[in-house]
UniProtKB/TrEMBL annotation:
Any GO MF annotation of the entry: lyase activity
Protein name: Deoxyribose-phosphate aldolase
InterPro entries: Aldolase_TIM, DeoC/FbaB/LacD_aldolase
Domain of life: Bacteria
Length: 244
């Protein structure tokens, strides 16, 4: 995949090295590739920190996760994990929100008070200038994982508004969002639009949680499609860049 970061291409890309577990050498190689191509960020496991040999002006942001993948960890456990990552060099942390809050409330469209309380706790653990990203996980109900089932718009709106109120920097859609048949991005574009509309007028940015393939012929087109819909960045799997 190639593109000009000055025309909306690679600056909006985030390379994912979450799976499989990369070595330090693999991470540094991908960070170097990102630096060379003007790619905005690299996403690595929290176990990768501290990561020496990165950081500084002109470097891609280093991003990681806490509470992954279900979000069912106690909020203080997630807060501690996120805080430790930032302390040891992470620029941004995506924390998976508790599904009992995301799908709570009397009508199952989210418990805004519980979400705000959780995000405030996480914000205290990830102080500025570190970036706090809050995400919808893969669990759709109490103790139940329903991969690929679309999250209702009302739920996404509740999460997005709670993120605005509680001071998160970015709200992220579910990682198992359905990919459409017509293009790589078509199935997740709706999620991005819903989140963008719900956060309009605030400083909160939005992302799709779906990791797309770096090697897809239409990868750059997918990035452009999702950024046009309102995505701050689009995550691409960088696994092929670590292959021998």
């Amino acid at each position: 995949m190639t593109g000009d970061p000055q025309t909306g291409g690679l600056g909006q890309v985030e390379l994912s090295l979450m799976d499989p577990q990369p070595s330090r050498e693999q991470i540094l190689a991908v960070v170097g590739h990102a630096r060379q191509e003007g790619i905005g960020a690299v996403w690595v496991p929290s176990t990768s920190f501290p990561l020496r040999g990165t950081g500084g002006e002109g470097e891609p942001s280093l991003c990681t996760v806490a509470g992954y993948p279900t979000g069912q960890h106690h909020v203080l456990v997630k807060a501690s994990e996120a805080h430790m990552a930032v302390t040891h060099g992470a620029d941004e942390v995506t924390v998976v929100l508790d599904p009992s809050h995301v799908f709570g409330g009397l009508d199952g469209t989210g418990d805004p008070n519980a979400l705000i309380s959780e995000i405030v706790t996480l914000r205290e653990a990830v102080p500025y200038p570190a970036v706090l990203r809050v995400a919808v996980g893969t669990v759709r109900g109490p103790g139940q994982t329903q991969t690929g089932e679309r999250v209702p718009a009302a739920v996404l709106q509740t999460v997005a508004r709670a993120a605005v109120t509680a001071g998160a920097d970015v709200v992220v859609g579910p990682s198992d969002d359905t990919v459409g048949e017509s293009s790589t991005a078509s199935g997740v574009e709706e999620t991005v639009r819903i989140l963008a509309e719900a956060t309009e007028g605030s400083p909160v940015k939005v992302m799709s949680g779906r990791v797309l393939s770096f090697d897809e012929p239409d990868a750059l087109a997918a990035v452009e499609q999702l950024t046009a819909a309102g995505a701050h960045r689009v995550v691409l799997d960088a696994g092929s860049l670590t292959s021998d």
